[in-house]
Design brief:
With 818 residues, this protein is α+β, with helices and mostly antiparallel strands. The chain contains 25 helices and 16 strands. The strands form 5 sheets. Strands 2-1-3-10-11 form a 5-stranded mixed sheet, with helices on one face. A 5-stranded antiparallel sheet has the order 5-4-15-14-13, sandwiched between helices. Strands 6-8 form a two-stranded antiparallel ribbon.
């Protein structure tokens, strides 16, 4: 008669009634027409025909059951029960099938919450409505636990998620007071609501809440429920959890709270916007006293403790939430910007994210201290106000430290990632790397003498020349003219391609001044590119995020980019060996660290506007920049940046093993891994031999200006006198040259030798024709230079210059530099 359990959802009362009606009719008809076999002997005898006329008796028919009042009464009652029962079963089945996994309560983070962690797991910052400080159950004082139980759920240990007696008690209490003075939700239900549900007021939501509460009790247990609840409950003023509330309201840890303060915190749970002492002290006191009374009733505190707590004033010492602000804001803001490039806006908005970063907090603090000290010690008299430092692990590309400026509160501009500056002679490394990769020998000779190519004339600092020099010495002494000649020999595009493969992302323009760093770059990409040499030619993208994990523990992102062989290993080893000479006897001597192999390069821009040093060991690469945000000139030198590098790195590598660079490969018979594409200038003017007496001032300076009328006087070096020494501290001890090293320089470098400069921002190659030669004093006749070959070759023989012709004014020549 009744449908089975599988069909109950589709049960139809009307059909059931119809079937019952038919069944009752058949039953009545059957009782009136029983078969004769079923009649008794007396009945058969009575039915026999007789001569005597008998009175006919009509049998009494049974009344159909559907005409019975009792039947309809039972039917109506059954339908009244069956309908709600069916709907209840359907509601339960639907809710049960859509319940989330309650184990997610253990990893829950609120929507919009992002937790940033350092490489050792320490919290750097929490963004959004996050619990700032999490406590394990054992770390929460028992009086604090019992205060919340007394306030929110007095039968917590007696129920299994739903407190039916509590519901009845709350109804009576609220009716008696004619207002809602007591809630009926248990702590378990509140945890279910926080983690899985919203604040919608509906029967379905309450039904799910009850089911979840029961399941939480079964799978998590009482202690874990209390731990999660006390860390997640919102207590006003941006406080999520009891540890946050203790700090924000009283500036204390939970162990230091008094009974009065404990009761005040527990009393805010039902309505923080109403009972917060920062909103309404009197309402907070009233609620606090209720909690104190319940704690006394439950035996949590003694009578004397209760009286003392009643008499305590409502006194708070408001504080900002912990981790609301980052100790290292330049880095954490950089990470937040990276998130928007990795995740979708919907994923970020959903929150509940844990971001594992690469930051080494010890290195970061050492970098910040170094920057502040250098600005204070050297910035005033060298006239620079800003600086930046970045350090990476060259083997992984992980950013280990990042300081984007001297004071984040004054300026949020990150000079590591956002400042595009001319790199000066630090860019020469890419020119030399390209040449070595093309098969050039580090012992290849070049003539350091006056050189004009298509109207562009590079200058060494002070106007001095060194004559014939090997490439390695030219790099360690940072000779500008040799760098430009080398660029002409290898070509614009090979140098640009090499720099991009090594990590430069900014636009590089094919101009002769490219060799001296005319194209702007930022410190992060420049340092990352040097890291390619430290990693034996392999380049990994500089990055600050290792993994991103969602609230369920699922990995949304993991950095697993494969290293790219940007430079062949032999070239990387040779260039690293050449850059070691910069530190061990050249312009970067201030970066030398005793007992460690260090390679690097100094650099300055025109008028010393930018002071650079980029250096590396096998395990670390770091870049330093000093200057002014408005690009005003400084009185500093790149040796100052090298000294800052020494101060920072000597601290960072204390815990690192001593490692050495790869051995220098065999140089003879070596073939290049790339092809040079020499530039074919239309006009070259080159002196065969330098004039060592020629200086940047005096008669030679007059001759230069006469022969180059378009060059601005601002390109000449102009330094105030007297100028203080560039070194902010005594130089470290210099190493003795090894047998495999080149002979030491023939003179002690002066301040002029340690400074570099490059042309103002030249963006296109110089005009194709050289300016007309001066009348007197006559320089050596200009020559038309043939395209240079990769192998060393003597300078071309002079030839008569063609008759001068009108031509556009040449581009500004560079001021003298390294």
């Amino acid at each position: 008669m009744f449908p089975n359990a599988a069909d109950r959802k589709d049960f139809d009362v009307a059909n059931w009634i119809s079937e019952l009606k038919q069944w009752s009719s058949r039953l009545a008809a059957g009782s009136a027409q029983r078969p004769k076999a079923a009649l008794s002997q007396r009945e058969r005898a009575a039915n026999r025909p007789s001569s005597r006329r008998r009175r006919s008796v009509r049998p009494k028919q049974a009344k159909p059951i559907y005409r019975s009042k009792l039947f309809w009464l039972i039917l109506i009652l059954g339908a009244g029960i069956a309908g709600p029962a069916a709907r209840g079963y359907r509601l339960w089945a639907e809710a049960d099938s859509t319940l989330p996994d309650v184990s997610n309560a253990l990893t829950f983070e609120r929507s919009g919450t992002i937790t940033l962690k350092a490489d050792n797991g320490d919290i750097l910052q929490k963004v959004g409505p996050a619990t700032q400080e999490y406590l394990d159950y054992e770390q929460i004082p028992d009086p604090l636990i019992q205060a919340f139980i007394a306030s929110e759920d007095r039968r917590f240990y007696e129920h299994s998620g739903i407190d039916y007696r509590g519901i009845a008690r709350a109804v009576v209490s609220n009716l008696r007071n004619r207002e809602v003075v007591e809630g009926a939700s248990t702590i378990t239900q509140q945890l279910a609501r926080i983690v899985f549900l919203d604040q919608e007021r509906s029967f379905q939501r309450k039904f799910k809440e009850a089911l979840l509460a029961n399941r939480l009790e079964t799978e998590l247990g009482k202690e874990k429920i209390l731990e999660r609840y006390l860390n997640l409950v919102y207590l006003g003023a941006g406080a999520y959890g009891v540890a946050d509330a203790a700090w924000i309201y009283f500036g204390k840890s939970v162990e230091e709270l008094t009974v009065s303060e404990i009761a005040l915190i527990a009393g805010m749970a039902p309505a923080p916007s109403v009972y917060s002492p920062l909103v309404d002290p009197e309402a907070a006191r009233w609620r606090r006293d209720i909690v104190i009374g319940r704690m006394l009733e439950n035996g949590v505190i003694t009578e004397s403790q209760a009286q003392s707590a009643y008499g305590s004033e409502i006194a708070t010492t408001p504080n900002e939430p912990k981790y609301l602000y980052s100790e290292f804001p330049y880095f954490t803001i950089y990470i937040q910007k990276q998130l928007s490039e990795i995740l979708s806006p919907e994923e970020i908005e959903a929150g509940g994210l844990t971001v594992e970063t690469t930051l080494n907090q010890d290195w970061q603090r050492a970098a910040e201290e170094t920057l502040v000290e250098m600005i204070e010690d050297s910035g005033r008299w060298q006239r620079f106000e800003q600086g930046s430092i970045v350090a990476l692990d060259p083997r992984t590309g992980e950013i280990r430290a990042m300081v984007g400026g001297t004071d984040f509160e004054e300026s949020q501009f990150n000079r590591v990632t956002q400042a595009q500056r001319q790199p000066g002679s630090t860019f020469k490394t890419f020119v030399y790397t390209t040449a070595i990769a093309a098969g050039f020998s580090p012992y290849k000779n070049y003539t350091d003498a006056r050189y004009v190519v298509d109207g562009y004339e590079p200058k060494n600092y002070g106007g001095k020349y060194s004559g014939t020099v090997e490439l390695r010495k030219a790099l360690s002494s940072s000779i500008n003219i040799v760098a430009v000649k080398l660029l002409v020999d290898v070509g614009f595009q090979p140098v640009i391609d090499m720099a991009e493969r090594m990590g430069i992302k900014s636009e590089l323009k094919p101009t002769y001044s490219l060799a001296l760093g005319a194209s702007e770059v930022n410190l992060l990409e420049l340092t990352s590119a040097y890291g390619t040499l430290a990693a034996e030619g392999k380049h990994r993208e500089a990055h600050g995020i290792k993994r991103i994990i969602d609230r369920g523990g699922e990995v949304l992102y993991k950095f697993d980019e494969e290293a790219q062989q940007a430079v062949d290993e032999e070239t990387a080893a040779i260039v690293t060996w050449m850059l070691r000479s910069v530190v061990e006897g050249g312009t970067g001597r201030n970066a030398y660290i005793s007992g460690r192999q260090v390679a690097g390069k100094t650099g300055t821009s025109e008028k010393n506007r930018d002071l650079w040093f980029i250096g590396f060991t096998p395990q670390l690469v770091a870049g330093i920049w000093f200057g002014n945000d408005d690009s005003s000139p400084t009185r500093g030198a790149s040796s100052t940046a090298a000294h800052a590098w020494f101060k920072f790195v000597s601290q960072a590598i204390e815990d690192l093993d001593v490692e050495e660079f790869p051995e220098l490969p065999r140089l003879s018979g070596r073939e290049g891994s790339i092809e040079a594409e020499p530039v074919k200038p239309k006009r070259v003017v080159a002196d065969k031999a330098p004039s060592r007496q020629r200086q940047s001032s005096g008669s030679s300076g007059s001759r230069s200006r006469a022969s180059e009328p378009a060059r601005s006087r601002a390109s000449e070096p102009s330094r105030p006198a007297p100028e203080p020494a560039p070194e902010p501290a005594p130089e470290p001890a210099r190493p003795a040259p090894a047998a495999s090293e080149p002979a030491p320089v023939d003179r002690q470098p002066t301040l002029d030798d340690l400074q570099e400069s490059i042309p103002e921002r030249q963006t296109a190659p110089a005009p194709e024709s050289a300016p007309p030669p001066p009348a007197a004093p006559a320089p050596p006749p200009p020559v038309e230079a043939a395209p240079p070959a990769p192998a060393p070759a003597p300078e071309p023989a002079p030839a008569p210059a063609p008759a001068p012709a009108p031509a556009p004014a040449p581009a500004p020549a560079p001021a003298s530099g390294e």
